[in-house]
Each structure stands twice: as C-alpha cells, then as structure tokens.
Amino acid sequence: MFYYQSRYGGRVFFDDLGWPWPKHPCTDNGSQTLKSPPVVRGPIVIKDRSGKTLDIYDLDDLQDAADQYIFTFQNHRTRARLDLALTKKAMKKGGLSIEDFWDTPSFLLRKDDEKPNAFRVEFISCRQRKVVRIRMRRSR
Predict the structure, then answer these.
(1) Is residue 140 exposed (0-12), middle (13-18) or buried (19+ Cβ within 10 Å)?
(2) Greatest distance between any 2 Cα atoms in the chain
(3) Helices (H), 15-74
(4) Which residues, including other chains, have CB under 8 Å from residue 117's CB and lie 6 or more apart?
(5) Rounded CA gap, 23 and 28, in Å?
(6) How far apart are CA 33 and CA 77, in angstroms?
(7) What's this model's pTM, rounded to 2 decimal places?
(8) 55 and 79 Cβ atoms separated by less than 8 Å
(9) Backbone angles phi and psi of 11, in degrees to 5
(10) Residue 33 pLDDT greater than 60, yes or no
C-alpha cells in the first residue's frame, strides 16, 4: 500500500503505483463523504511491503548547470539534504520537464545497488499520469 498527499491537501492510499491507480478499498468509497483522519504530529515513517523504511524526499532547490540540473532533495524524516544530478539530455530522452519535478509533492529515493554514487528516484508525474523511475547520480 502506498500513501500520496497532494500539495492541495488531498490524500489517498493506493494498492499499487501506476495506471489505473488502484485505490485501497479503505479509501475507495465512491461518492461517500469521508471523515478527516486525525492530525499526525511528528515524522511519518512509510515502509514497503517487506517492512523496509522508505526514504521520502521533497525537492528543496534546483540549479541549472551547463549540461545538467542539480536537484537538492530533503528527507522528510531526517531533514538530511542530498544533491543529485540529471543531464539535460536524459531529461529530454525521458520526456521530462522541470515542472514535472516542481509539481511533485514527494520523491522516493533509493541507493542504486548496481552503480556507486547513484540513486533510483521515483515520483508521480501528474502531467504524464504515471510513475517516473529514473537514475540520478550524486552531484560533485
């Protein structure tokens, strides 16, 4: 199960990521009015199906540097910052725009087991209506 909250306050639980975005039955009530959940204070810990804690990040800053963009992400839970680079060529090849990143409320970042200094970044692109999965490398 995956939790998503838009910057406009809407919230939903999905059973799986990707089209057609199957909502978890506990939130898929059709036209019924839902009671607001209690306010949660403090950091929220999100885990995958195996119980491993997922590192959820916000986009904090973006720099345009010659042939690449430098994205500064901040961890929801720890507030740690991480600078990752993505080439403009890779963005164009993936059909991505800067707005895709700014319009995303949160990002899932995982260390890439195959490449040192690389991360797998996943996020929901509203414009493309899909989960985008890309590899980004640590900025030097």
Answers:
(1) exposed
(2) 51
(3) none
(4) 137, 138
(5) 6
(6) 31
(7) 0.67
(8) no
(9) -135, 145
(10) no
